[in-house]
Amino acid sequence: MAYHIYISNSGSEFFSHFLMDEDSGALSPQPDIALAGSPGAVATNPDGSIMFAALRSAKQLVSYSVDKSSGQLTTIDGVNLEEGPPYLATDNTCSYLLSSYYGSGYAGVHRINDDGTLSEEPLQMVQTDGHAHSIQTDRSNRFAFVPHTNPANAIFQFCFDEQTGTLSPNDPPKIQPKTEEGPRHFAFHPSKDLLYSINENGCTVSAHHFNPENGTLESFQVIATQPEGTDMEGKSTAEIRITPDGKHLYGSNRGHDTLAHFTIGDDGTLTIVGHYPTEATPRFFELDPNGRFVYSVGQSSGGLTAYRIDEASGALEVIGQHKVGESPLWITFIKQA
Predict the structure, then answer these.
(1) 196-247 residue pLDDT tens
(2) To the nearest whole number, what is the mean pLDDT of the chain?
(3) Gap between the Cα atoms of 95 and 20, Å rounded
(4) In 10 A of CB 246, how many CB atoms?
(5) Contact status, residue 222 vs residue 181, Cβ threshold 8 Å
(6) Residues 70-125: pLDDT tens digits?
(7) What distance in Å separates the CA atoms of residue 78 and residue 214, rounded to the nearest whole number?
(8) Using one digit for the tens of pLDDT, what is the confidence trace for 120-165?
(9) Are the C-beta atoms of residues 159 and 116 closer than 8 Å to each other?
């Protein structure tokens, strides 16, 4: 079996398209897919038949139907935006498309209609603070979180009503690190009530206990993503992922241009294992849906590096490299029909 892989190239007006062999992780380049603007964040419905993409240059959210055999996309519709969101995610019912807005400091919600179109106007635009970088709901779909990098330096906490698509501030409405870490993106542990945020400005990962009853977070560890003694000038972090077995966590270091590897203890505590060289300015990386391979793209290199994950140790082994478009910043998997 195979997966389609789509690479959003924010400096080009196309997706790079590959087929991934499910067993080996090897990529076979396919023809690029032309778009009506430069792509950024992407989300899909659960079966991969519909894709939603933020076209940054066009300031639009566009929905596409996906031919899961060929991987080709057909435009369904688009809605206009005041600014392009750096992050998209569907809620767990796939009834709503959630978005965050870095420049203006908002969290947005659009309704997803049965035909894949989006509501022309957002159902809600909630003012938070500048540098709102991502948004996701928890597994219960009752709560949502929006990290903000510095100077806001906070994770905003919301209650989410899946019947109406409404976000409302939780109590407290936000948590803030004690130091200027700058939370950017986050990942839930697959089986425990834990949330890990990667912090852009502090070059750290914060581990949080997640209360599934009231939807609040409490930090219990902050750990560096860079080797001790690293010159931190021009360094920042970007993306975070956890293996499906919940044993390993990876984070990308921009400037240092590595993927940091941590093990996750039984109590959720992180221990640094090492660092793996990767593409220049690794703004985004992704695990394949089975959690056996890692794919990392370099915003400065226009390249992609593929790794195999050692099942026992979590170590990464390079298995391939490919050129993509300019300034890649998102990777999407859809299973081939």
Answers:
(1) 999 999 999 999 999 999 999 999 999 999 999 999 999 999 999 999 999 9
(2) 98
(3) 29
(4) 16
(5) yes
(6) 999 999 999 999 999 999 999 999 999 999 999 999 999 999 999 999 999 999 99
(7) 36
(8) 999 999 999 999 999 999 999 999 999 999 999 999 999 999 999 9
(9) no
Place of tokens 């870490």: 181
Q: Minimal CA–CA distance to 121: which of 61, 56, 43, 40?
A: 61
φ, ψ (nearest 5 deg) of residue 213: -80, -45
Which residue is it, tokens 């005041």?
Answer: 82
Residue with tokens 């959720």: 268
Closest CA to 166 of 82, 91, 240: 91
Separation of alpha carbons 62 and 52, rounded Å: 6
As beta bridge partners, residue 216 has 211
Strand order in the sheet with 258-264: 236-242, 248-254, 258-264, 270-277
Give the amino acid at 331.
I
Residue 118 carries which DSSP code?
B
Question: Burial, 15: exposed, middle or buried (Cβ in 10 Å; 0-12, 13-18, 19+)?
Answer: buried
Q: Is pLDDT at 1 greater than 90 in this prediction?
A: no
Q: Which residue has the tokens 């945020």?
A: 197
CA distance 273 to 263: 7
Other Cβ atoms within 10 Å of 262 Cβ, number: 24
Q: Are 117 and 144 in contact (CB under 8 A)?
A: no
Is the separation of the CB atoms in 290 and 277 below 8 Å?
no
Question: Are the C-beta atoms of residues 16 and 4 closer than 8 Å to each other?
Answer: no
- The candidate with the shortest Cα–Cα distance to 270, out of 155, 189, 216, is 189
pTM over 0.90: yes
Residue with tokens 């603007």: 37
Report how far apart, in Å, the C-alpha atoms of 222 and of each of 196, 203, 208 are: 10, 10, 9
SS3 state at 38: coil
